[in-house]
Amino acid sequence: MGKQSKETKSPVSDPTKFSILNLIDLSNPNINQTVNSLKQACLDSGFFYVVNHGISEEFMEEVFAQSKRFFTLPMKEKMKILRNEKHRGYTPVLDELLDPENQIHVGDYKEGYYIGVEVAEDDPESNKPFYGPNKWPAPDILPGWRETMEKYHREALEVGKAVGKIIALALDLDGDFFDKPEMLGEPIATLRLLHYGGQISDPTKGLFGAGAHTDYGLITLLATDEVSGLQICKDRDAKPQKWEDVPPLKGAFIVNLGDMLERWSNGVFKSTLHRVLGNHKERYSIAYFLEPSHDCLVECLPTCKSETNPPKYPPILCCDYLSQRYNDTHADLKIYKKQQS
After folding, report:
1. Fold for domain 18-340?
2. pLDDT (tens digit, 9 = 90+) per residue, 296-321?
3. pTM (two decimals)
4. Which domain of life is it from (predicted)?
């Protein structure tokens, strides 16, 4: 973790009155207390708040302001930087379909923008899925925009690594377990700006801001504005499913576990089903998806298996798992080429 600015201290004194979620304070000097609290959160819901994370409120406000500047551009400008096959760039409303079983109306009522780890086009690594150069708005259209997002990407990665250390300890691993080059040393870390336009969701009619889904990687850091909409379902197999609201908490990240951590932990820590319901208000959020490197083999951790508890999932390469999930949930880019021809 880098230096903590004065502004990162959370004003929250009693987080229990805000939500069902645990609150993890990264400035807490009692690491055992932090590990135990995080472990309980992972076992209870797979979601928790993180405060005192080192990113100032002033900078977060700047990131949100820059995000709004992009989404208020004319559609013609946004479509100039439409996402590519590397999942970099703009994603229009209805581009993503996260819950095809229940979303009978085409897709998610949100638009987004993907920013990954910058890899030069002439770098051999750029030939791999999810690696390559980012797509950026023209500097004369949004001056300073790229610099803000690149800085946020770097700072969010440090927060993610700090949380990863606590997760490793909670799984009885060395604290630096996830810092290896094949894991978070060279991660597929993806920043995604999101804008919900204010459509009213109706689950009975298959209308969602974001359909029910689990995230794909290790963890996700979510920053939100003050507009509610996020819901979680702790027991995805329950009939009927019970959905609970996760209120925004100023100055905090909402952190959730991803599918790869569920596979690593042999199902001890589960990735939690979640969705977003629109409530007639515009909503902005910023998700940071932290996934291991392209070539990382995700397999059961040694501390999570035994003779009586063998691995539940076969090993899988990170790139293979991510490619399949993205292909399953995103529109074929050929659709947009036809529309523009």
Report:
1. Jelly Rolls (2.60.120)
2. 999 999 999 999 999 999 999 998 99
3. 0.91
4. Eukaryota
Evaluate whether 85 touches 135 at the Cβ level (below 8 Å): no
Which has the closest alpha carbon to 294: 167, 117, 168, 152?
Answer: 117
Sheet holding 244-245, edge to edge: 210-213, 273-276, 230-233, 244-245
The span from the CA of 55 to the CA of 155, in Å, is 7
Task: List pLDDT tens digits, range 45-101.
Answer: 999 999 999 999 999 999 999 999 999 999 999 999 999 988 899 999 999 999 988
pLDDT above 80: residue 276:
yes
Give the whole-angstrom CA distance, residue 200 versus residue 260.
Answer: 32
At a CB cut-off of 8 Å and minimum separation 6, what does 198 contact?
278, 280, 281, 282, 283
Distance (Å, rounded) from C-alpha 22 to C-alpha 241? Answer: 22
- How do beta strands 219-224 and 283-291 pair? antiparallel
325: tokens are 């999930």
**Distance (Å, whole) CA 247 – CA 268:** 26
**Count of beta carbons in the 10 Å neighbourhood of residue 101:** 8
Six token digits for residue 139: 């500097």
pLDDT above 70: percentage of residues in the chain: 93
For the chain, the structural domain boundaries read 18-340
Supply the Cα-derived Rg of the chain in whole angstroms. 19
